[in-house]
Design goal:
TIM Barrel, eight-stranded parallel barrel
Amino acid sequence: MEFRYLGHSGLKISEITYGNWLTHGSQVENDVATQCVRAALDEGISTFDTADVYANTAAETVLGEALKGERRESLEIFTKVYFPTGPRGKNDTGLSRKHILESIEASLTRLQTDYVDLYQAHRYDTETPLEETMQAFADVVRQGKALYIGVSEWTAEQLREGHALAKELGVQLISSQPQYSMLWRVIEDEVVPTSRDLGISQIVWSPIAQGVLTGKYKPGQAPPEGSRAADEKGGADMIKRFMNDDTLTRVQDLQPVADELDLSMAQLAVAWVLQNDNVAAALVGASRPEQVTENVRAAGVRIPAELMTRIDEVLGDLPETDGAKTAEGMPKQRLA
């Protein structure tokens, strides 16, 4: 495992970070989830990312149980706040002072820890003054319940405004958590340059494009049974933008590049996002321990410039690069 500084801070995190978004507390049994966490620890992963909304708080509980007994100082534990939790009451969502201060207490209880290393705004709250949000985050840091703050899927302008307020309040906003992969590059034109200016790093989610970049989906064929694209409970909707023959054919054409580097397709995809010097970590999840072991092999890989160029040539104009997609995907109002 290799480690990178998170933003303009002294905090180092594992460049492969374990996330339990779609699995823990919902898609896999708790004992398997614990096995995945143990596998991550065995492979040198020290950084774990979750959120209160995942499986409606159950994912935090599972992660807390799985990490119980580990030396806390050797771990970096991240969580997030914004989306509705609990009974979805009028204040059970958003980034109001009330929701933030209540949510951090509940998250710490579920995670069985006195503090999180990073507390993140899961989305931008259009209904709460940003000053109120940042003051609440600053108070969480001053109370010792979080060491640093971050955001997820904020635009470049929102990053600048939030960073300025955080600086005024004397706290460090050091991270951004966007979707990023070979196929989804919307952060490259605005979010990444802005983040470099501000001393903010990316912790990217879905580096293998919800599984598409593993190459397991073949053009003209039905998705494999049990795969995300075959999941009618929600997984299929999330992946459908990539499930067309043009995309799947070009992904298959990346296999020779992976072979040349002696990597699996998934490892190539994770290694690709880590070539961006503004990316501190790639978030990977797992429904089986062996998936963790495979993904970790992307750590420390350096893809030669000529192969990065070949990847671009294979994919052509296929990747989504429109920076406006970040704002378009943002909730226009709270969801409760």
